[in-house]
Amino acid sequence: MILAVTEGTPRILTIASPADGTAYGHNALPWGPLDPRTDRTLERTLRSWVARQSRLALGYVEQLYTFDEGRAGEGLRRITVTYLALVQEQAIPQAGAGWRDVYAFFPWEDWRDGRPGVIDDALLPALNTWLARLSDLQQAEQERERVDIHFGVNGAPWVPERVLERYELLYQAGLIPEAGAERQPAFGRPMALNHRRVVATALSRLRGKIKYRPVVFELLPPRFTLWQLQQVAEALAGMSLHKQNFRRLVEQGGLVASTGEFAYDTGGRPAQLFRFRRRVLRERPAPGVGLPGGVS
Description:
Layout: E1 2-6, E2 9-14, H1 42-54, E3 60-73, E4 76-86, E5 98-101, H2 102-105, H3 117-133, H4 137-151, H5 163-172, H6 195-209, H7 226-237, H8 243-252, E6 256-263, E7 271-276, H9 280-283
């Protein structure tokens, strides 16, 4: 998965879906098969696929997760190794490739303007209907607890990092097209194959990681304003942050240093430009931005 944050919007690169009958006719992540005879390493192969499918050269890349897709015929198993790349958005000349808002696929994950209405208006009623149909009362009680914990209801806080758990609940309940349900816009745009699950896994990873690793700076230019930094952090976390508290945490944590320059295209007063202070990697074991863990 290739992610950028542009003007406060987290966006992923998608390509045209493969026409093999398994894609539901929707967006796909850049992907391709591994040929052990010619592909020397997984990461080099990944970079080559992306260059061919979107003409994009990748920078920061980390391995995300390995999915066991089950039997692939002739005694073989299909294994999918996924990667996460962080870039700055740029024009993609390849036909069929383009950038899409992450929250178009996961509208219930964007809390920057408060609790999304889709949770109470559509998701919870649908999940309650599913729970009511379960014949095993013990299972129903266990699943009810999962709904409460992962969707932040009945006294449980909303924990931003549980993106994957929420998606898998919706899949298990048969409420999304990838699980065979009819199209339901309230439950986000579907993706090809298992690619929306990959995005959920990546977003979960990022939301946890920004608290203890400075990954947000991979999504920023070398010089940036504190407002740009806050926008990136909010975009990934799906939460609005208190401006003064955020800036105090960033500056006191030694994450940034002033360049002595100013940005004048802010629409208001000139804003001071900063750079990532790389020395913090040696000074602190967990140099993240210290986001809150959940909201009630």
